[in-house]
């Protein structure tokens, strides 16, 4: 499993190497039956001075990917850990959202740096719809390795937008028990989206909902409810 | 010639600040205002007044290396902070309409020019400088941005808290030396 990673997730973190360093003591314990491949090389690696995060190129992990199994394992632990500390489904979703938010702020900065730092006049997104489009394609590609499936605008409420993913990667190995059917673990993704929108200056409340359809039982809708200030700001541009 | 850099969070909390003294020569800008100031201005408010009036007396004094009278290093620090803070209004106005990250010379206050850089996550880098140096400042901001992104990615760094990493500080100083 560990030797043949599924190249499905790409990594937004630059710390894939150093985290392997940090975890290396586990390779010598017997609790995890990980192959004890580089016990010799890890000891030599620790001998030198610790690498500094400021020395690493931000593009080093641009195309690196993390195995789905490793992520599924980590995320299942995240959900279990969170579930032990909450009283209800709403609380659990809120916590997952907060965790995703921490990722989103980083995703936004790193993604923009990778896209814009080479250009002569780096640009920010200041209109809402292009920003939403870039979340649908760029952010999804950076985090999940594929763009989301659709963007929809609510007919009844003009401040509501939806991003739809037919098969959310983080829920691939999660089956929610019937008594918790309200729960959508994609709240984590919603947190990422919320952080990106917040960072770009479009404060919104973002939630995740299960909306299964024929053929796509795991279909998830990320619902974005914009704050009033965003709509007012957009009005200024129209005139 | 001094440069003052401030990193501000989206809620305008200063997270990091740096004062840099360039070895490059100062363009000679004489100010008539200083001589017109009343004699009492040499009292408690002297520093503030000379700075606000764009006086050259204070600007010249930091030729004295290691002298206590360096502009912005001592008692005039609050003036610098005030100018930087005042420029935020202009910066915020411009960044709503302009999608560029690097806003060159958005504001001017006497001899001070204010350039800003807005990251996609709405962090503001504000730089006070006395001479025009667009390309240098742009490269400087780009390096600070890269360093900031690296700081952000550290899982032990909480977003929008002050940056206390000594390595970050050293790196920013190095690129300030290089470009300013």
Automatic annotation (TrEMBL), chain A:
Sequence segments annotated as region (Disordered): 28-55
GO cellular component terms, semicolon-separated: endoplasmic reticulum; TRAPPI protein complex; TRAPPII protein complex; TRAPPIII protein complex
Source organism superkingdom: Eukaryota
UniProt keyword terms in alphabetical order: Endoplasmic reticulum, ER-Golgi transport, Golgi apparatus, Transport
Location relative to the cell: Endoplasmic reticulum; Golgi apparatus, cis-Golgi network
Bias (Polar residues): 31-45
InterPro entries given in the database record: NO_sig/Golgi_transp_ligand-bd (IPR024096), TRAPP-I_su5 (IPR016696), TRAPP_component (IPR007194)
GO-annotated biological processes: endoplasmic reticulum to Golgi vesicle-mediated transport
Signal peptide positions (record): none
Main location: endoplasmic reticulum
Similarity annotation: Belongs to the TRAPP small subunits family. BET3 subfamily.
Complexes and interactors: Part of the multisubunit TRAPP (transport protein particle) complex.
PANTHER family membership: 41-2 PROTEIN ANTIGEN-RELATED, TRAFFICKING PROTEIN PARTICLE COMPLEX SUBUNIT 5
Official protein name in the record: Trafficking protein particle complex subunit
Classification lineage: Eukaryota, Fungi, Dikarya, Basidiomycota, Agaricomycotina
TrEMBL record, chain B:
Cellular component GO terms, alphabetical: cytoplasm
SUPFAM superfamilies, per the entry: SNARE-like (SSF64356)
Gene Ontology BP terms: endoplasmic reticulum to Golgi vesicle-mediated transport
UniProt-recorded name of the protein: Sedlin
Matches recorded under InterPro entries: Longin-like_dom_sf (IPR011012), Sedlin (IPR006722)
Pfam (any one): Sedlin_N
Organism: Athelia psychrophila
